[in-house]
Amino acid sequence: MMKRLLEVCTGNLQSVAEAVKGGAERIELCSALSLDGLTPSLGLLKTVRRLYPALKIHVLIRPHEGDFVYTEEEVRIMAEDIKASLPYADGIVIGALDAERNIDIEATRRLVEASEDKPVTFHRAFDVCRDPLTALEQIINSGCRRILTSGQQPKAEQGIDLLKQLQQQAGDRLIILPGGGVNDRNARLILDQTGCMEIHGSCSDGSGTTSAESVKRILATIS
């Protein structure tokens, strides 16, 4: 049986240290978690890679807060941020929609291309798209390897029905990564009921900073 995996969302170096201390093998690295995450500084990324060479680092590329609609210049900036991140990152995390809340297919393909051979996750912009089942196919066709989603609900536990449907439709073509309100009380339930093998959480115990103990508790429940 495949091993279940916890990806820890980290917004600063302290959170990364706590995630590693708790046993995390992979993180999403970003900044400004209070704004739902923005692109981290290159300095932070380089430091995390130097301090934790064995850690899998997936880097969020998001240039502004609010919506997920990007101008041509912003897409170029995102592509440049991706290229700068490639020597230090194990994966790239993106998400782009058009003004009608459909997947911005062209922007997504361009950002996947900029990511070269690194696996790309389409983030929770997916949770506000209009047609999730059509969007899933578009994201697969764009070359992304994962979708981070709460099942279009405020929390993943509330989105279990859609998460299960997405998992069944995706099969082995793409990984569905449930995230949103994940904790040691519901992580196993979400994985058991959806059939997913990976899960995503900040493991912050409400403090805004990752807690090693929270990481350990979630890992214990899903192992």
Terminal Cα span: 11 Å
- With helices defined by DSSP (H or I, 4 residues minimum), what is the helix count? 8
Radius of gyration: 16 Å
Number of strands: 8
Average pLDDT for all residues: 97
> What is the structural class?
alpha/beta
H and E order? EHEHEHEHEHEHEHEH
Helical fraction equals: 25-40%
Approximately how much beta-strand content do the residues carry? 15-25%
Q: Based on Cα principal axes, name the global outline.
A: globular
Please give a structural write-up:
The chain has 223 residues and is α/β, with parallel strands linked by helices. The chain contains eight helices and eight strands, in the order E-H-E-H-E-H-E-H-E-H-E-H-E-H-E-H. It has an eight-stranded parallel β-sheet.
In a few lines, what is going on in this structure?
The protein is α/β, with parallel strands linked by helices and 223 residues long. Helices cover 38% and strands 15% of the residues.
Describe the protein's topology.
Layout: E1 5-10, H1 13-22, E2 26-29, H2 42-51, E3 56-60, H3 72-85, E4 91-94, H4 105-114, E5 120-122, H5 132-142, E6 146-149, H6 160-170, E7 175-178, H7 187-194, E8 198-201, H8 212-222
Parallel strand pairs: 1-2, 1-8, 2-3, 3-4, 4-5, 5-6, 6-7
Helix pairs in contact: 1-8, 3-4
Key words describing this protein structure:
eight-stranded parallel beta sheet; alpha/beta; 38% helix; 223 residues; 8 strands
